[in-house]
Amino acid sequence: MSKRVFVTGIGIISGIGRNVEENLQAIRQKKSGIGKIKYLNTNHKDTIPASEVKLSNDELMDWYGLDKKQPYTRATLLGLIAAHEAVQKAQIKDIRQYRTGLISGTTVGGMDKSEHFYKDLLTTDKHIQYIETHDCGDSTEKIADFLGVKDFVSTTSTACSSAANSILLGSRMIKNNLLDRVIAGGTESLTKYHLNGFNTLMILDREPCKPFDENRKGLNLGEGAAFLVIESEDVVKTTGKKVLCELTGYGNSCEAFHQTASTPEGKGAYMAMKEALDRSGLKPEQIDYINAHGTGTENNDLSEGRAIEKLFGDNIPKISSTKAFTGHTTSGAGGIEAVLSVLAITHNLIFPNLNFSEQMKELNFRPVTELLENIKVDHVLSNSFGFGGNNSALIFSRY
Amino acid sequence: MEVYIKGIGNISPQHTTDNSKFLDEVINHEHDFLSCIEPNYKEFISPIQLRRMSKLIKMGISASKMSLRDAGIDNPGAIITGTGLGLVGDTEKFLNQVIDSNEEFLAPTAFIQSTHNTISGQVAIALKCFNYNNTYSHRGFSFESALLDAMLLINDNDAENALVGGFDEITPEHHSIIKKTRWVKNEKIKSIDLLQQKTQGTIVGEGVIFFTLTGKEEPGTYAIIKNIKTIYKPENHQEIESKIEQFLAENGLTKDEIDLVVLGVNGNIDTDDIYYHLADNFFDTNYAYFKHLSGDYHTAGSFGMWLAAQAIKHQKVPETARFKKESFTDKPIKNVLVYNHFRNIDHSLYLLTQ
What is the dihedral of CA B22, B24, B27, B28, to 10 degrees? Predict the structure, then answer.
């Protein structure tokens, strides 16, 4: 359990861009991906905004030259593209050279196709190739096959903390010498199923979301995928490859309070962050930036904010939520925000929290609202909290 | 990596909730699929809560409490579950509402309960357990990933013990859909005769099993889980054979030292040949099988592991679970290997010892 784990590659596709460079550029330009729904065929198109990846499934398949006769769900396509970018950026030429795993997080899985074809699947013999794309494992296996990953595949499904938990398991498997490297992250496409689900919970803002704002009205959903390539110390030393940063801490705990809400004091959030910090051996004041879960719901931002205040006291690091850029990409969020956390370190950046105007009455801090450049960012804490009280936190550190 | 099985809660299509019994009476299912025998939930859940819960949540909470009670542990160091399809009933309910009502006037309950981590979250709430909590949903590696996670946690001293569960449910609606694939038998059969039917597909079942695992041996331990391994899309029988040999060697054993091999054979002529091959040409020992008792489902490997643990604890394999009955010999059961695969994609090995 002494081995260190390094991030050597990142890949991302989201509502603000098709790759790492586009995402970074959009953030620099304060360009949000949230807007009118175009690709998802829903009756809420005109009333509920979301951050969609700005390419149709056909366009995604054309881009990657995929066989359109094969049943690809949108989560598979997004995940495949982001994971492929991460592998390329990690300069992996031969995926079989080292023991390599793929761990992806998804919750909605292949629901986009299931909901589209469901009545046909019940009453006819049409579209039956989509019966086997429904489950969460389908996207992971298709991505693994595309990349040639064979040594380990798995899928986490803890709603909005899924991708963070993938990175967590991947890290532990490397530390235990079960794998040499892992492509870990998550993927989620927008579906009518969870758009309507979140809508019934009355936590969707009809306007662009305002994380940590006194007048926040809820979240905007998004879609996307992002993966890290994490590798063992041995592989990094042997290959002499460039390291982007080190994964120094992780924490996972359960709120055990309510299926869809967190305690006002943020007990689970506090425990996950505390565990990550303890594991990293860092002092709270060493954290330069918190990429918050910050969904923009009344409940999350209050409990997360209070948990941060409890852990950091008077010494609160710079904080922002990037969800006003990407939307809340649910199972993809932990991956997308892990990639952004890595970029904060490699580019010495702290990202703005868009749409903020008024500080929350209950909290003593305001998020960062302008892009901060050339700033010291050595340690970043990234939070991911999900339904079921599944809270996870990751810490990335300069190497 | 080894951990000890200290408690079991098994709700299945057989009488499996009393751990002192081991398949004493077998139920032969003749419906399209095998449904669980539901326990008396009132023993585990208050009547007010019961009304709000769907069947799988009730089974999940009951099985987890059975397991912890069996182990004498109140609050586990971790709760980790695996499920192939999650809460199918709640998912269907909300999905049909979304489609039928044209995305209007929807109630949130079914949606809230339909995420795959509902069971691990609900069990945590029922136990007031704030510790590590995770859920895996990856076909034939769902339960296996959960088990691996728990073994790592205990091995790394991140948890003293862990509650690990596998769950899947089958509904008439979902069965009507998957019957259209080549993975489910079209003809009606008696579950007990699963292997007599030399046809395509299998029979679908369901089950919820929670194991309480600990890092140290205590009185009442069922068995030791030495190790677990997953094999993704093996190219041929040779690859499976060599991975088995390698796995056993890594754990200080040879195939001749295996007293019992529990096989996931499921009656599908398309994908069963590897099981027959291993039993006829690779091992020379006793064999057991279980999918005629449980049906097949994504987390059925957990039922195989239950069978292995009970065989070690009771030092016997019930007649009904013996495979290659004619050559079954009486001998002590010390080392047991479970080999199961999901549609010849996700193959898994579990090694248990006394």
Answer: 100
A328 as an active site residue: the answer is yes
Confidence of residue A1 (pLDDT cuts 50, 70, 90): low
Chain A residue whose CA is closest to B128? A256
> Which tens digit of pLDDT belongs to each residue from B294-344?
999 999 999 999 999 999 999 999 999 999 999 999 999 999 999 999 999
Whether A244 maps to a domain, the answer reads no
Burial class (CB in 10 A: 0-12, 13-18, 19+), B175: middle
Catalytic residue among A160, A194, A209, A245: A160
Task: Name the band, by pLDDT with cuts 50, 70 and 90, for residue A262.
Answer: confident
Residue B273: what pLDDT?
97
Q: Which of A190, A220, A239 is the last residue of a domain?
A: A239
pLDDT for residue A389? 87
CATH fold of B3-214, please? Peroxisomal Thiolase; Chain A, domain 1 (3.40.47)
Domain shared by A363 and A286, yes or no: yes
pLDDT, tens digit, 9 for 90 and up, residues A291-322: 999 999 999 999 999 999 999 999 999 999 99
Spell out a b/e string for B329-342, using b for 16 or more CB atoms within 10 Å of the CB, else e. eeeebebbbbbbbb
Select from B114, B131, B152 the Cβ nearest to the Cβ of A254.
Answer: B131
Query: Mean pLDDT throughout B54-66?
Result: 97
- Do A108 and A216 lie in one domain? The reply is yes
Give the model's pLDDT for residue A65. Answer: 97
Q: What whole-number percentage of chain B has pLDDT above 90?
A: 97
Is A1 in CB contact (< 8 Å) with chain B?
Answer: yes
Q: Does A256 reach chain B within 8 Å, measured CB to CB?
A: yes
Distance from CA of B68 to the nearest CA of A (A): 17
User: Are the C-beta atoms of residues A43 and B103 closer than 8 Å to each other?
Assistant: yes
Write down which residue in A197, A213, A239 finishes a domain: A239
Q: ipTM beyond 0.90?
A: yes
User: Model confidence at A264, in pLDDT bands (50, 70, 90)?
Assistant: confident
For the domain made up of B223-353, the CATH class stated in words is alpha beta
Q: Which residues pair with B168 in a beta bridge?
A: B207
In chain A, what residues touch B85 (CB-CB under 8 Å)?
Answer: 134-135
Same domain, A382 and A352: yes
Which pLDDT value is given to residue B217?
A: 87
Percent helix, strand and coil across chain A, each to the nearest 5: 40, 20, 40
* Domain of A340, in residue numbers: 249-397
Model pTM? 0.98
CA of A2: which chain B residue's CA is closest? B156
Name the minimum distance, in Å, from the CA of B118 to any CA of chain A: 6
A160 is catalytic: yes
User: Number of H helices and number of E strands within chain A?
Assistant: 12, 13
- Are B99 and A118 within 8 A, CB to CB? yes
**Cα–Cα distance for residue pair A301/A211, rounded to 1 Å:** 7
Catalytic status, residue A293: yes
Same structural domain, A152 and A24: yes
Q: What is the pLDDT of residues A339-396, one digit of tens each?
A: 999 999 999 999 999 999 999 999 999 999 999 999 999 999 999 998 888 999 999 9
How many domains would you assign to chain A? 2
Q: Does residue A202 sit within a domain?
A: yes
A119, A113 Cβ separation under 8 angstroms: no
Asked if pLDDT for residue A107 goes beyond 90, the answer is yes
Question: Which residue type sits at B214?
Answer: T
Task: Extract the runs of DSSP E, i.e. beta strands, from chain B.
Answer: 3-11, 78-82, 132-136, 161-168, 207-214, 223-232, 260-263, 286-289, 322-323, 335-342, 346-353
List, in order, residues 6 or more apart from A319 with CB less than 8 Å away. Answer: A212, A289, A290, A292, A294, A308, A353, A365, A367, A368
